[in-house]
Amino acid sequence: MRSMADRRKLHLTPWTAALIAILVMLAVLFLMPTIGVLLSSIKTTRDIALGDLWSIPGQLFLGNYAEVLSNPAVHRYFVNTLIVTVPATTASIGLGVLAGYVFAKLPFRGAGILFLAIVAGMFFPPQVILVPLFRLFNGIGLIDTLWPIFLVHTALGIPICTLLMRNFFATVPNALREAAILEGASEWQVLTRVAIPLGLPALAVLATLQFTWIWNDFLWPLIFTQSDEKRTIMIGIVNLKGQYTVAWGVQGALSLIASLPTLVIFLFFQRYFIKGMTMGAVKG
Amino acid sequence: MERENRFWRVVLLFLPLSVFAVFVVWPLFSSFWYSFTDWNGFDPNYAFVGLDNYARIWTDRLFFGAIINTALWMAAAILLPTLLGLALALLLDRQLRGARIFKTIFYLPICLSAIVVGQIWTWIYQPDWGLLNAIISFVAGEPFTHAWLARPGSALWSVIVAWSWQQTGLSMVIYLAGLTAIPSDLLEVCDIEGASPWQRIRRVVVPLLIPSTIVVIALSVINSLKGFDILYIMTGGGPFHSSDTLAMHMYNESFKKYLMGYGSAISVVLFLIALVIIGFYFRQLKRIDEIYG
User: Which long-range contacts (CB under 8 A, 24 or more apart) does B143-151 make?
Assistant: First the structure.
């Protein structure tokens, strides 16, 4: 499928020039907020307070980064976020692979309804399950640990992972599975030796999506953790804001550092990321 | 063979379904149960209070404020990211040097967290040195120091603009995917018949993008129901609850006032609204599938 782009080449006419001008203006508008944070992070708070946030600085001030990177609380926030994000990403994808495989290759009566019910889960506001989960984890003494965040993210990742994996496995020819089974392979071997190796692109899509969402999450750590020892990085940004209300430079530096992992993933795996976004949205 | 299949179905589905049931389905139904109680968040005991919490909703002025704000949020979500995303997709859907860079710039905000986005925009709206006031001062030629986020009249809209900035990229990506599905002969016919670019877009391209539009609008509306993180950091629902959404109100009642029973009742209302929208969305998706395969 070729895109429309390939068919309609543009020649440099006034119309094209105007178009490019509009695009450049919009792009500048869109980049402005991000550039603002970048600028704030390399300026002293005094400069910013004097109204000089939006100009290009004469010299690079790295004090904000030094302050953020030498803060042991920030190290803790990072470690906590990683401890939650990596296992929850892996676990939700693993569970999605299992369920997606069954829905694609071993259909049964009522599978359609069950699948729809699971997929619907990704559209509900998380607030609708907040109170019972808080009571559950409070009851078993897991509040103020990282466990509830890991468990809830694993569960909430199941809808999108099941959806994408089912759609992917549906494209794997049935003949492949039947041939393997005739050769004496078990269903488990078909899944792990045939389906999963073929499904690597879909796994990459899910890994980028899930990592970004869980890393960026704010609500669940806010509800389930209380002490500063257990907070994740997004809560850390808010806490820091409360700690010194006017240290804009430091806040800017922390915001950038906290966005770095997802930014890097996004820039390198953009294709996968966008594929996941559109597939998750359209293929309900 | 069939017996083996049944065995594997059970084995493979057991773990995903139990995790989903315990941490998603069961809490969903428990929310209904707790909405009939007066649980306060830490006491292990609670009393059954019947429909008291729902009666309370009717007299809660803040609840209605939150409903109206959520509706405003939805309306803006339908207009801003959809129109802007469509415009960007139409502009970028051609062979243009650097189109990829533009696309990356426009959807970069998607990978930022709502907290970071909120932080960034708080500075744009900052009264003394924020970018917005600086620009207005420059254009007007006199100092302008409106506190955008601290005034009841502008707080909600300021957050909505920040949120739209983040969402536009998603709409654009979905529209771009929709544009690639338009058959090329159709556009060639337009050129042969001498249609102007504007006619081509209005009469051919936009009508063919209706399926994408449904997806974009439904996602925007669903995401707007979830509006919480960005509000939390930018206004906290204030000033004077003027930017509260349902999600924010539910959080405040449950985890600030510890009225978990009442908070559950609000979350049940939130659930029912979401259910209607999701039901509509799924029906439309099915119809799109039937038409376009």
Answer: B149/B122, B149/B125, B149/B234, B149/B235, B150/B239, B151/B239
